[in-house]
Write a structure and sequence with these properties.
With about 170 residues, this protein is mainly α. The chain has one domain: Alpha Horseshoe (Serine Threonine Protein Phosphatase 5, Tetratricopeptide repeat), CATH 1.25.40. It has 7 helices and 2 strands, in the order H-E-H-E-H-H-H-H-H. The longest helix has about 40 residues. It starts with a helix and ends with a helix.
C-alpha cells in the first residue's frame, strides 16, 4: 500500500520538476530555488560576486520537487536514485539545510562517513547563515513596526465626534 503511494508521489514530483525544467532551460543562466527572502538575497549576492554570468532565483518548489521525490525513493529503498535527486535539489538550493541534511543521511546509508560529515557541516553552516539573515529581517520588520507605532503615539490625538454629539448639536 505504501509503495503505491510513493510511486504515485514520484510521478507527481516528476511532473512538477519537468514544468520548471521546461520553463527555465537557458544554459547561460544559473538557476537557484529559494524558500525565503533571506535565501533569495544570499543567492542573488553570491551570483553577483562570483561574476560567472547571469543568475535567476525561482520558487522553492522546484528544489522541493527533487527533495520530495528523493524522500519517496528512499521510502521505496531506492537509495542511489534518491541521491541523484537530492544532488539536484542541493545544486538548485545550496544553502537549504534540509536538503543538505537529507543528502548527508543518504551518505550515512551508503556508509560514506566522510561525505556525510562534510555535508552535515555544510547543512549546519547554511542553517546558521540563513537563520541569521531571517532573524535580521524579522528585527528590521519589528523595528519598522515599532517606529510606526512611535510616530502614531507622537501625533496629537484626533478629536473624534461621536454620533450622539453630532445629533445633539443639530437640534
Amino acid at each position: 500500500m505504501q509503495s503505491k503511494k510513493s510511486t504515485e508521489a514520484i510521478q507527481i514530483f516528476d511532473s512538477v520538476a519537468a514544468g520548471y525544467e521546461n520553463k527555465y532551460k537557458d544554459k547561460n543562466t544559473k538557476f537557484y530555488s529559494a524558500r525565503s527572502p533571506a535565501e533569495t538575497l544570499f543567492y542573488t549576492l553570491d551570483a553577483a560576486n562570483s561574476n560567472k554570468g547571469s543568475a535567476t532565483v525561482v520558487s522553492g518548489n522546484w528544489g522541493y520537487a527533487y527533495y520530495l521525490k528523493a524522500y519517496a525513493l528512499l521510502d521505496l529503498g531506492r537509495v542511489s536514485e534518491a541521491k541523484v535527486q537530492l544532488q539536484r535539489a542541493v545544486t538548485l538550493s545550496p544553502q537549504n539545510s534540509q536538503f543538505l541534511s537529507e543528502l548527508g543521511h543518504v551518505y550515512q546509508l551508503e556508509k560514506n562517513w566522510q561525505s556525510a560529515l562534510q555535508i552535515f557541516q555544510r547543512a549546519e553552516a547554511a542553517a546558521k547563515r540563513i537563520l541569521a539573515n531571517q532573524r535580521a529581517e524579522r528585527r528590521a520588520r519589528q523595528s519598522m513596526a515599532g517606529n510606526g507605532l512611535r510616530l502614531r503615539r507622537a501625533e496629537p490625538p484626533r478629536r473624534r465626534r461621536s454620533h450622539v454629539s453630532q445629533v445633539s448639536r443639530a437640534r
